[in-house]
Amino acid sequence: MHEITRPSVQPLLGQLGYSMSVQLIGVDCAVNPKDIGIAVGHYFDAEVEISQLIVGRPRTVETIASVVDPKMPTLFAFDSPLGWPQSLAERLADHQAGTAVGACPNHLFRRTTDRFIRHLVGKQPLEVGADRIARTAVASLNLIAELEEALGSNIPLVWSPAELSSLGCIEVYPAATLEACKLSSRGYKGKKPENFDARSVLLESLSTRFQSDSGLLAEAKATDHGLDAMVCCLAAVHFLEGSCPPPQDLAVARREGWIWVKLPGSNSR
């Protein structure tokens, strides 16, 4: 079991020793561009502002590339698995049809970070090794590669705030972030009246954690893709503020990916 340690909350700007803004780009990922939500934010001196919300644009790469500010470090937060279970790759590499796999399904289809998130906040991420979310993962990794080409720069996974110098990305999971913030992750997805009501309640709580104008909040209420993109930005802030438990085995995390979620009860917003 992953031992949970309580990290100190130390903002990125203090760690790096200079005063500079950080751009936040939260992406609620999907295979179909009409279901992709993009939130653009700004983090400076422990203040957070969400300034843009874009949902359902057909040219996703061009849309994201157009909002990247080259004058400041930019942290992308993707709501999608960015890797597969190590055990799945190891067991299937030489597997022959009709022979036993010889592995526990939970270890075969769930990553280390998936099991940890369940332990941390009681929320089970979708299994990238066994679920349709794998298609979203492939689409998201292709999106990152296409963004790198469009921007002419690598967008590496970063494993601590101090690693962010230009462009970087992390994996996040909005439902887990909401639970870690003591907010309900149930009932807000969909187009039924009760889903709109649930999003309205969530946004009222979230509006105390970042600044945003009423128009953007209304857009987020209209679609769960927009709300999730905003929560992706909030998760990015938790990462920058040092509130998220890091992986104990970095080598495995580099292979499988790691979901950054704040430690419940930490001082971060």
Ordered list of secondary-structure elements with their pairings:
Blueprint: H1 12-16, E1 22-28, E2 37-44, E3 47-55, H2 60-67, E4 74-79, H3 86-92, H4 105-109, H5 112-121, H6 133-151, E5 167-171, H7 174-180, H8 193-206, H9 214-222, H10 224-240, H11 250-256
Parallel strand pairs: 1-4, 4-5
Antiparallel strand pairs: 1-2, 2-3
Structural write-up:
There is one protein chain. By secondary structure, the protein is α/β, with parallel strands linked by helices. Helices cover 40% and strands 13% of the residues. It has eleven helices and five strands. Strand 1 and strand 2 form a beta hairpin. Helix 2 packs across helix 6, helix 7 packs across helix 10 and helix 8 packs antiparallel against helix 9.
From the spread of the alpha carbons, the general shape counts as: globular
Biggest sheet: strand arrangement: 3-2-1-4-5
State the helix count: 11
One letter per element, helices H and strands E, the order comes to HEEEHEHHHHEHHHHH
| Helical residues, percent | 40-55%
- Runs in which pLDDT lies below 50 for 5 or more consecutive residues are 1-14
**What structural class should be given to the helix and strand makeup?**
alpha/beta
Distance between the termini: 27 Å
Q: Strand share of the residues? A: 5-15%
Average pLDDT rating: 90
Largest sheet: 5 strands, mixed
User: What's the total count of β strands?
Assistant: 5
* Rg (CA only): 18 Å
